[in-house]
Each structure stands twice: as C-alpha cells, then as structure tokens.
Amino acid sequence: MLFQRLDASVAEAREKLEAAVRVLDTNSPLAEDLVEREVNVATVAKRLDALGLAEIGLVFGRIDVEDLDPENPVAPASSTSTPATSLDRRYIGRMGMDAPEDHYRTLVVDWRAPAARPFYLATTAHPEGVHTRRHIRMRGRTVTAVHDETLISSATSLADTPDEASEIGVASEAALFEALERARTGHMTDIVETIQREQDLIIRDPSRGVVVVEGGPGTGKTAVALHRVAYLLYTWREQLEKTGVLLIGPNTTFLEYISRVLPQLGETGVVTATPGTLFPGMVPTGTDTLLAKEVKGSAEMVHILQAAVRDYEILPDKPITIMAGSVPVTLTSAMVSTARRKARRSRRPHNRAVGIFTDSLVDSLTQALVERIGADPLGGKNLLSAADRAALHDELAEEPAVAAAVSELWPILTPEQVLSKLLSSRERIDAAAADYDDDTRRGLYNPNYASDLPIATATLHPGQPGTAQIPWTPADAALLDELAHIIGMPTPDELADEAESSYRQQVEEAQEFLDIVRSSENTDLDDGFEAEILAATDVIDAATLAHRQQGEDLRSTAERAAADYTWAYGHVVIDEAQELTPMEWRMVFRHSPNRWMTIVGDVAQTSSPAGVDSWEETLAPFVDTRFRRHELTINYRTPAEIMEYANGILPAIAPDQTPARAIRSTGVPVSHVSSLSEVATHETGMTQVISVDNVTEIKGLEFDHVVIVNPDTIIATSPQGTNDLYVAATRATQTLTIVDGEG
C-alpha cells in the first residue's frame, strides 16, 4: 500500500515537472516566464528527490508506544501492561507519509519528527514508554530482515540486573552490530536506522547557540553532526532555507567521504567547504612548512595584515604639484597626513575610506587654491565668494591629477595582491611584522608568491585569471578573508547594484541620444508607412542585454552563499574543529553572526600546529563561556584490541581525557611486523597504509584494515606527531598492523 501511494506521488510530480518545462516559449522567453519556470522546476525536482529516498529504504522501524490518544491503536502484547494502557503503532522512515482520505492519518513518521524520538531513546533500562520495537531491513522494496525487541517486559524482568549495553545507553539490537561489522566502501553511510540514545540527545539539542560535541575516535561525532544538520533543516526549514547551512570539514578527501550522507537523508542544499576553500574562489595548490602554518594561523596575523594595509596609506616624500587648469597648486605632506588621519579615524575599511581621504585632500587643495588666486593684493579679505570656492572644489574633485594622487597615496586594494606582495617581499614583511621575532618573519616569507600584477588588477576570487599563478595554501584562505574585511571588498549584492546602476545610466544616456535624434529627424514620409520608433534599449549592445537576462536571483541559497565572503549562514557545522587555527575561527565566526553553531572535535586528535588545545580558550573571544557541551562516550567503530594500543598513546597527548568505551571486540590483537612484505592480506574490506607522507590526510576517515609504517617517524616529524599516530591507529574497524622496521 505504501509503495502504491509512493508511485502515485512520483507520477504526479513527474507530470508537474513536464508541464513546468512545456509552459515556457523557448522562441521568445520573457524574464518573468523564465523565473517562474525555474522555480516550478526546482520545486518539483526537489519533491522527486525526496520521494526517491524511499528506494534506499522507505521504512526501517516500528514501535508500539504508550499514547493517550493513539492515531494507529494496537492492543498491548505485554502481560505487564494494564488494560487501560493505550499503544500507538508508529512506522519510522526516511520520509513522512499520510493518508489524506483518512483525515491525514499518519502512515510513516519522518525519523526527525518528535513522534519518532522514542524509537531512538528507548533501551531496556529506559524504555520511554515503548513496549516493542522492530528494526526492518530493506533492500529497495524488499524486506530482507526483521528484528524485534520487547522493551517493557525486558525492563521489568531485568530491572535489577540490566545488561551492559543498557547501562551505557546502547540499545541491544542486531541492526547496530550488523552495521558496525559491515565492510567499508570508501563513502560514509547514514546511521538513521541505528542512532543511539546519547547521539539522539545531541542531534535534537534545541539550543540556539554554540554546541560543542566532544568524543574520542569512533564515537560517531561526524555522523551526529550530519544527522543534526538534517534534523535542523527539518525543524527550522523556512529559516534555514533562506540563510543556508555551512558544513566545514578538514579536507576535500573528508568531504568526498561524507558526500552521500546528507543526500541519503533528503538534504542537498548545504554548502560544504574546507577552511582552505571557504573564501570564495579559493583553490589551494601550495603547501606550507610547519613554521608557516603556525605563523599564518596565529591571531597575531590580524595585526600584521592591518600593518600591511596601512603601509599602502603613504605620505609623499616631497610635495606634489597639481595643475588646476593653468594654475599650479601644491599638495603637501601635511595635507596628506590630515587626510589620512581623518580616513583612519572613520574606522571604515581601507577602500571604503577612500572617499573621506579624497574629500579631505580636495578641501585642502581648494583652500590652497583659494588663497593663491583669491588673495587681495591690498591685503584685504579674500576676493572669492562661497560660490566661487564651491566651483573650485568641484573642478578639483574632477581633476585627473587629483585622482592620480589619490591612487598613489591611498590606492584601491585587493586581498590577493596585498597578501601576495606581502609574503613575497622581505621588505614588506619587515615593515608589517617589525614587532615580531625572526622566526615569524622567516615563516611568512615565500618567494613563490611574487606577482608582477598591479595592485588593483586582482579579483576577489583567487581562482580567476590574474592570480592563478600564485600557489595559495589552505592557510591563506583565512588571511585573504581577513584582508577582504580590512580592505572592505564589495559584496556580490553591492556589485549587482553597481551593475544595475551602470545599466540604468546606459539606458538614460541612450534615451537622451534618441531624444536628440528624434527632435531633429524628418517625419514627413511619402510612402505611407509609419516611421520606426527606436527605444533606449535598442542602442544598448546585445551583450549588455544578455547579461541583464542571466537572472542571478535564480541561484539557490547555497550557490549565492558560497560566492559571498560576507554571507551570514543560519547554522554552521564544523567537523574536526580541533584543526582550526585562530585565524580560521575568525573567518568562520564572521559567517555566523547569530552564533548558532555545532562544533565537533577531539583535542587529542589535533594535528595542526596552531590548532585547538582548549575549547574554552578557543571560543572565549567569540562567545566567552556561553556554549553548551556534550560528550560522546561510546566507541562504536574501533575494536577493543586496537583501542588498547591507542589508549597507550593517549596519556602523552591528553592525560586528563577518559577514553571512550569500546563495545566491539574482534579477538584479533594488534600485529607488529618488521616490513611491509610481512603484512597479512585480506580478501574483504578496505586496507589503508598510513605513513608520514599521508598521515594528515586520513583525518575523519575509516577503513577495515590499517597498516601504520614507522610510527616513530610519524612522531618525530611534527610537534603534533604523537597526535597524528593516535589518529592513524584509530582509523581501523577490524585490524591494525604496525610496521616498525620499514626503511
């Protein structure tokens, strides 16, 4: 019955999609028709995507739960229940379905709905009113397995001796352990069918502030973060669809690894980025030394970048002579100093303060010019009137020589060129970082950043022509973002307004031209035909008109957000957050003015030299102590045998941290061999060899079998080498092999 309803809904949606496509006259598309068509197509396509979730598994659970007003009542099966107990039978699935013909009776409850929550919270120790729970395994439209639990009677009979799983909040269910034992495929899958109690409490946390989720390896931090995204989009759909959700991961490999989870949960409109790609257009191709990573990530870079921008706000070495018509007027260093002081005191970003700087220069030049040409030879009052002074002011403001002086003394800057010129010049570094030590200056210098482009030719997007030859590194994104705010780069909306203003100006100029032509044309026609009347848009070139019809407003929220360095997201999720540097935290929090964030990480796994040591210290500049903390305590992924090895490393990096409790055991101890040739091969599952060359790239990933080559080398290579080894050892779900003697 459910699939019949589903097929009918799919057929109806496809019919609407075809109708929406047919409605547009492609020979003469009007802008409003295009907008309407695109909106209709996007709406129906989204509906089809949601209906497609059923093919992954429409229903995966069922509960009989106590309810005073059951929608789908069933009789209690438990002998311990009283006759007055009312049970509601609820089927839990990836999407909700109801029966409109039966007063919209619920047929399937969306897993994110409040009515589905007992399915996840109930254990034999805390049944939450659930009498029976059924896990349903499906492949396509076929049920492949069913597992039933009787929770109320189990809780009664075992009240004095609850099992170990119940004590730690793990439901004793075959579905969970089947999922944990399943071979890895290279892509993370959702855990919607097996969410555990402590995970669900975090996923549905109602806080509208910063939520920090801590947990050791294998506790499901990433899965919790992704399912929280899906839950928040379900609960706050209207708000978050307008403002967007940002998901930040440590690297592109990680983002690819988790890329299928949200679509499996029915959510595709989330912006994903790494800290190194969060700045619009940024595509890092270079690498930094450990020293450079540490220096670039330090909060001290704020002062260095501010000084680097101030170095472009210069005082002339000697007076500048400007010709006002045929009269020379001298621009002195004192005039420039006054203008610079006024511009800086405005506290506006550099580029946005250029108007104040220019106005002050023009005022000073006007005063000097008035004193020169209006002086009374007899020593009396200046002969120029207020109107004369105003006219001189306006003429000077339009003088090309004044504009040239402003460009030299207070140039329009771009983040890309300021940063590239800073990092490639020892002189600029010495000036901007004069108060810092030699290591800081040495860490910043990189001759590969040299660029011969003029300061104002770079674009806001590093990946576009003009800056593509610069080998930006992931750490540069936060610096470019900081500079964009220090400089005051225009936002996409401001650029669009400027383009609109330019278009209107062209139309007005064209209309003025037509008015002149029309006023002088001969309208006496002998052939009896009416004269062809031109409109203003007829003299606007075709390219300009085509650009007008591009309709940027048709972009999704996610697309518009990803292109705007000032975009304020409704919610921000950071996975492996312990890797973020102070500069990257500044960049991220600028995207979250409402401070509604989910931060997921483990300080024991920090690999970045400028990463997180303490959540309190890291978050204090942004939210003080106003954040909520959760801890995941159960290790679902890593077998106890491997965790015994990993927990031996933990005291060296996080002595106060309590290890997560492993609930699985394979019976296979960690293997130690002296060469790769001795490593056992496995017929099934993914095997990953981890060495010093790739240890920083496996953050957040998991594999069936892991081989670690020369752990001592990993430890010695970086100040965070012991953390890296801990991360590497906890990637395995089945076996771990240590190669101690590979050359």
Give the helix level as a range of percent. Answer: 40-55%
The radius of gyration is: 33 Å
Biggest sheet layout: 7 strands, mixed
What is the mean predicted local confidence, pLDDT? 84
How many β-strands, per DSSP?
21
Unreliable spans are 154-162, 545-552
- Gross morphology is globular
Please work out how many helical segments DSSP would assign: 31
Structure classification: alpha/beta
Distance between the termini: 64 Å
**Which percent band covers the strand fraction?**
5-15%
General description of the model:
- The chain contains 31 helices and 21 strands.
- The chain is an alpha/beta fold and 743 residues long.
- Helix 8 crosses helix 9 (221-235) and helix 9 crosses helix 10 (237-243).
